[in-house]
Design a protein that fits this description.
- There is one protein chain.
- Helix content is about 65%, strand content about 0%.
- It is built from eight helices and no strands.
- Helix 4 packs parallel to helix 6.
- The longest helix has 21 residues.
- The termini are far apart.
Length: about 180
């Protein structure tokens, strides 16, 4: 009876070494190449313009896109390391707090995402702030709060400003075209 109680040997961890290269399906290769080139160019620009705090945030978003496309989680680590190197601005930067919150949210670090949003300045985009809070509520299982947030966004924001601007440009260009035909 005691013989059956022998401890089970622990699994052997994989040997240390470089991670295997992540292959991208051929259909995604052009997009992956664009992301690779964008990241490389961004890193070069960061080296040339170390005081620019927006360049690292752009490269962080490119790393996140590449991680989504390739499934290579090392890109998230690179994004996080780059974000950690961005000096905190005084007053706090909305771009930086949103970048941190999005990265934490993507990595399912809900408490950290919420804490990053709490550092956003008062002049941060209220719609983006509300959308991230609603996403966090949804992911946290607070469905009613998420629904209320999303409904408030739809009711309060209505048509996105970008769409209105595009629509007004189309309307004015169509009216110019109609006038020239008359």
């Amino acid at each position: 009876m005691l013989a059956a109680c022998r401890p089970v040997p622990a699994p052997v961890p994989p040997p240390p070494g470089p991670a295997a290269a992540v292959s991208v399906p051929p259909a995604y290769a052009p997009e992956a190449e664009k992301l690779n080139a964008g990241i490389e160019h961004g890193l070069t620009l960061i080296g040339k313009q170390p005081g620019d705090t927006l360049l690292p945030l752009e490269v962080v978003s490119l790393y996140q896109e590449r991680a989504r496309l390739t499934g290579d989680y090392e890109n998230y680590a690179k994004a996080e390391a780059l974000l950690a190197g961005v000096p905190a601005a005084s007053p706090p930067s909305a771009s930086l707090c949103f970048a941190r919150a999005r990265l934490h949210y993507t990595l399912h670090r809900i408490k950290s995402a919420r804490a990053a949003l709490d550092t956003c300045p008062a002049n941060a985009d209220s719609a983006e702030l509300a959308a991230l809070h609603s996403d966090i509520a949804l992911y946290s299982g607070r469905y009613r709060a998420a629904e209320e947030g999303y409904r408030a966004l739809v009711n309060g924001v209505g048509t996105p400003a970008r769409y209105k601007r595009r629509r007004s440009r189309c309307s004015s260009s169509q009216s110019l075209q109609l006038r020239s035909e008359a």
